[in-house]
Amino acid sequence: MRHLDLQVIQQAREWASTHSTIWLCTVLGTYGSSPRAPGSMLVATSEGEHVGSLSGGCVEEAFIESLQDDAFSQPATIVRYGESQEESQRLQLPCGGVLEVLIERLEVTDELMVHLEVLEATLLGRKRLIRRVDPRTGRYRVVLDESPNGPGVSRDEQGLVQIRVGPALRLILAGISPVAGFCAQFARALGYEVIVCDPRDDVRRDFIAAGHAEGVEVQAVLPALFIASGACHEATAVVALTHDPRIDDPAMVEAVKTPAFYIGVMGSQRTSQKRAERLKRSGGLNDEQIARLHMPIGMNLGSKAPAEIALSVVADVMRVFNGKAGETHIAAAPVATAI
């Protein structure tokens, strides 16, 4: 789940404390090109206030317009946007795409408040759940997700919509550098929750002054200590980009003890080999733990400038998250992040 969906649920909880009814929309399927994946969410009030995204703008406007015309009075409605050529052009859906959206009219009750609280806890990384919704009645409930590799959205034999809900994507930047600043910007654009850890006061001040801290959580702590505190869940990526082994090495030692899906550190091929030897000798890591480290970090894009290197790093994180094959870590050819 993207960080935006966490914002949706948190906003839903806030509006549920001041409204009698809210509407929760979930993308069930996309056909053709679509900027938002199945499972993406949006919450709205009867006044047209909304948080979240279904398509990047066009479908949201159509939904809000229909909502204010009292179109969604049933507990649950499934709508297909862009099905006709005329509608696709009117909504400006890319490449003739079609979006199937579940729209739930949720009366605010104690049951709903507990339901939203459970969803928020799930997005914060405490568990993985399946949210089951009956589109005929609007009834909803959650069950434990016992097969986390299944599709994000599906229907069971009874016709119930099953929506997998897991931790929101998180990027922990272990130390601040020029590359880290651009990584923070790229990751935020992709919907990540971004946390930057660095104990150096002057470096943090420069990071904030450069405008990189907007929407980013900045922690004045050694990254290894923050990681060891339980900050990593299975949707967390940890990247160390400082070239300072006093910061990078301890962060790697702690990160391999967590369920983080991506752990990477910047350096040349030769530096990476030396770091692997050092982490075995001084950090006590074994071969299996070393193999989890992406070093040299990043995809081989021929990157040289900090922004280019950051792009290669964030692209590699997304490659791994999406399950795409890439180069072997230590044995890979040197990339331009090796500076």
TrEMBL record:
Q: What is its EC number?
A: 1.17.1.4
Domain XdhC Rossmann: from-to ranges:
171-317
The alphabetical list of record keywords is:
Oxidoreductase
A molecular function (GO) term: xanthine dehydrogenase activity
On the tree of life, the source organism's domain of life is Bacteria
Q: Where is the XdhC- CoxI domain?
A: 15-82
Identification of the protein by name: Putative xanthine dehydrogenase subunit A
**Organism, per UniProt?**
Kushneria phyllosphaerae
Q: Which gene encodes it?
A: pucA
